[in-house]
Amino acid sequence: MPTGTSIYAIPCSAGRPKRRSQRRATSSLSVRASTDVSTVTLLDYGAGNVRSVRNAIRHLGLGIRDVRSPEDILAADRLVFPGVGAFGSAMDVLTRTGMADALREYIRRDRPFLGICLGLQLLFDSSEENGPVSGLGVIPGVVRRFDSSKGLIVPHIGWNALEITKDTQLLQGADGHHVYFVHSYHALPSDANKDWISSVCNYGESFISSISMGNIQAVQFHPEKSGATGLSILKNFLSPNSSGSKVPPRRKASNLAKRVIACLDVRSNDSGDLVVTKGDQYDVRDHSSSKEVRNLGKPVDLASQYYIDGADEVSFLNITGFRDFPLGDLPMLEVLRCASEKVFVPLTVGGGIRDFTDANGRYYSSLEVASEYFRSGADKISIGSDAVFAAEAYLQTGVKTGKSSLEQISRVYGNQAVVVSIDPRRVYAKNPEEVPFKTVKVSSKGPLGEEYAWYQCTVSGGRDSRPIGAYELAKVVEELGAGEILLNCIDCDGQGCGFDIDLVKMVSDAVTIPVIASSGAGAVEHFSEVFEKTNASAALAAGIFHRKEVPILAVKEHLVDAGVEVRV
């Protein structure tokens, strides 16, 4: 269906969509809606982290009925569609199962509907993602990719501000607050769809962040990952007659915020208990005679506290995951499940995401490993060593095989769900021409007066060095499908002297995907420094938060004073 046409006419003054035409007959789909106000129907077609939406709904006191057939959609009293992954894959599943027609009919009847992220995009005529691919054709317009050629960092990841254009029940209390976005594709306002739009957001240009028409609602952002503001938005849909307290923002949101991320390095201690630890240049054992693994707390408890304290994301890194089969690490999966029930901001998990053959000879693809992490509550997965090997192979052959963990996972779940964690070590050089890798003139000279350095990547938790630089790795993994880079620095880890500005600037200037600065934070000033001197989208810290040396709120307040946009 061409842009500007729709299966519905522009609605009448009563605000209800009016059927114009339909692609397929839906007369056979005749099911009476249920009337259970304590239950919401959830359309989960098997891609990505729907557990987060489930947890948010249950947190708000409602039960969930899963869609198992097209008839379940038509029988729904309220339907939530948290679309994730790629547009074409989602439409293929919906069409093949008959659910696309059921969705069109459900919406035609103006039944209460909430689409989330891809659940908004699928309402439009089509998408350019791996396409063109036809959508549900409810709203006129084409979903297009953000243009990174104009200097825009893509995906659009983080907390951005809504500009509310229509007074709706759904967005009551959201004005002035940041909400969480993670997407590479967007729909633009037009004369043909302007009556649907309830809010817009600015990221290089103004795009549609929510729509509302009658009982049909959809949002591009993730309310289930937008903290208290997002939970309030969900409650407005699930319990529209309830009265909740609307907390005014401490500082009115205006644009995309810089993110402050709390990281939890998780591993078993010598007693077999899963603990949060912290390394000193990746050494997690005490320097005392006991040599025990540093125990800084319980993973779920700390993650929950950091959410309360205002962390914009929480990252779990299973730092011994490279040794063992991650799907056999049931305690780590359980940590993720439990944390996702209490933490309503994005969760990233990394460690051991690769192809694996277990002791019984059964082969598991990296996609299966990642899928289990997503089902357990992860919003993003972080790939380390396996991404280095994939990049090395690509540099040798120039061929994208499509078989690497990076390519497989980004193809199914979208590149916004894939973070590549880079663990480099500084190598000084007197002359840039001495090495075949990208060098940078360093702010502080090396031990022999060297003015240049390159950053050699490592694998296996920093134990093994590889013949590839951080700059080269970052460029290649972006090409292979990474949506974000977590940039560590072994030299700075645990030192508390600040982020490696030279490294962060080099990499963040080289790629068009978001870069998270990591390793070395020891004071609030280190956060403002990395945001002022580099293009980093986020800054991550661990030890200073675990040891309560620097509270997250103190970091946020300092950034506000420094003129940096943050979510407070």
TrEMBL record:
Residues 384-385, 421-423, 493-494, 519-520, 542-543 are annotated as: PRFAR binding. GO terms for cellular component: chloroplast. GO terms for biological process: L-histidine biosynthetic process. Substrate binds at residues 352, 488. It comes from the Eukaryota. L-glutamine binds at residue 117. Gene3D superfamilies: 3.40.50.880, Aldolase class I (3.20.20.70). IGPS catalyzes the conversion of PRFAR and glutamine to IGP, AICAR and glutamate. The glutaminase domain produces the ammonia necessary for the cyclase domain to produce IGP and AICAR from PRFAR. The ammonia is channeled to the active site of the cyclase domain. This is Imidazole glycerol phosphate synthase hisHF. It comes from Oryza meyeriana var. granulata. The lineage of its organism: Eukaryota, Viridiplantae, Streptophyta, Embryophyta, Tracheophyta.
